[in-house]
Amino acid sequence: MSRNIVVTGAGSGIGEMAAKLVVERGDVAIGLDLKNAEFEVDLSNQDSIAQVVEQVSAKYGTVDGVIANAGTQTNSPLDLKVNYFGAVDTVRAFLPLLQKSENARVAITASGASLQPTDTNLVQLLLDDKREEAIEYGKSLQEQGPEIGYTNYSASKRAIATWVRRVAPTDEFAASGIGINAVGPGVVATPMTTELLSTEEGRALAFGAMPAPYNGALRPEDVADVLVFLVSGLNRSMTGQIIYIDGGFDSIRRGEDIWHAPKSMDQ
């Protein structure tokens, strides 16, 4: 029996590839995006998300999986609104439908940036759902220039990865039969990074920040393959995992021993 899988950010890049793979594997892809998708939705707006859930429910009745992939990298508070709040709001809005499924799964696109140094105060504001404070704080970071503004992006990805691990074993998810995991891509070759990766200087910048000694830049399908697996029936026991698809950056950033004397990634 086919499964109904919601895919956000389905209009391009990783989300578009994930939607195609869902269909190729015999399931139904329900695409959400600002444009070029079955349902148009602004994932930075809670009301817009609530409306699209009603539309999806009316048309499909059930939802068996959510791939919350939509994201931005603007180095502004928009990253907080979409990458963190948008992902959390989307998953929570679809929870009533997911809880009716016999084999519900959620997969979220985080980032290798979740391993980079970031502003832990901003991360905590996000996790505490202090939306207005987080947005204002993010604006103050953006005003200090793109390098400091990048913290909006890295913090949004650190926060969503943390949220996944926080909620995975809870009654809301685990006890309801819903597995939830995330992927942490490294440098991905998409239309957004074409210009950056087209020059030696740009490649040095990208891989200087996020080295990828194994096969370099990812293709969108490299990430989509894992996302689609995570929401499939083949994933029977994995939950609360952040799977870094990054060509080796995680191993470099965190080192070989992640079991003893843990320390903050920001030290």
UniProtKB/TrEMBL annotation:
<dbReference type="Pfam" id="PF13561">
    <property type="entry name" value="adh_short_C2"/>
</dbReference>
<protein>
    <submittedName>
        <fullName>Short-chain dehydrogenase</fullName>
    </submittedName>
</protein>
<keyword id="KW-0560">Oxidoreductase</keyword>
<dbReference type="InterPro" id="IPR002347">
    <property type="entry name" value="SDR_fam"/>
</dbReference>
<comment type="similarity">
    <text>Belongs to the short-chain dehydrogenases/reductases (SDR) family.</text>
</comment>
<dbReference type="InterPro" id="IPR036291">
    <property type="entry name" value="NAD(P)-bd_dom_sf"/>
</dbReference>
<dbReference type="InterPro" id="IPR051122">
    <property type="entry name" value="SDR_DHRS6-like"/>
</dbReference>
<dbReference type="Pfam" id="PF00106">
    <property type="entry name" value="adh_short"/>
</dbReference>
